[in-house]
Amino acid sequence: MLPVDAFDTHDGHLPHGICTSSYHGGTVSKPPKERKKLQVIVCVLFVELFERFTFFGIVCNMILFCTIKLGYSSYQAAMVNTCFVGASVLTPVLVGWFAETCLGRTTVLCFCALLHFF
After folding, report:
1. Most buried among 19, 77, 82, 105, by the most CB within 10 A?
2. With the C-alpha atoms ordered 63, 66, 68, 72, is the resulting torsion angle positive or negative?
3. CB–CB of 81/63 below 8 Å?
4. Which residue, among 47, 72, 51, 50, has the nearest Cα to 62 in the 3D structure?
């Protein structure tokens, strides 16, 4: 059975919001846009996952590093760890506010990317 279009199109495109689906041998395939959207979502989720692995790997090992390698007392190592966690949580919020109110998103994004590469 052929797919049914809501409108007759001459160039193969439908008006905004109208889509067609085809039924090929018992399976319904997703349109390419939906596959691409799914790939983007999966990619963002993997980036977030690896970012969290990195953050918690640093936080978990920071006290040991500060006490063994740097010679800090346990209290000082815990304070350094707490300051790192606080800075990691507050920095995105403050930079986002600064980007929206002062410089603009693109400028702050380019500046932060430059800092990241240094």
Report:
1. 77
2. negative
3. yes
4. 72
pLDDT digits (tens, 9 = 90+) for 52-111: 999 999 999 999 999 999 999 999 999 999 999 999 999 989 888 888 888 888 888 888
Place of tokens 């815990």: 78
* Contacts (Cβ under 8 Å, ≥6 apart) of 22: 3, 28, 29
Number of Cβ within 10 Å of residue 67's Cβ equals 15
Cβ contacts of 66 within 8 Å, gap of 6 or more: 72, 76, 77, 80, 81
Please say whether the beta carbons of 20 and 14 come within 8 A.
Answer: yes
Of 36, 34, 40, give the one whose Cα is nearest residue 21. Answer: 34
**Burial class of residue 80 in the structure, from the number of CB atoms within 10 Å of its CB (0-12 exposed, 13-18 middle, 19+ buried):** middle
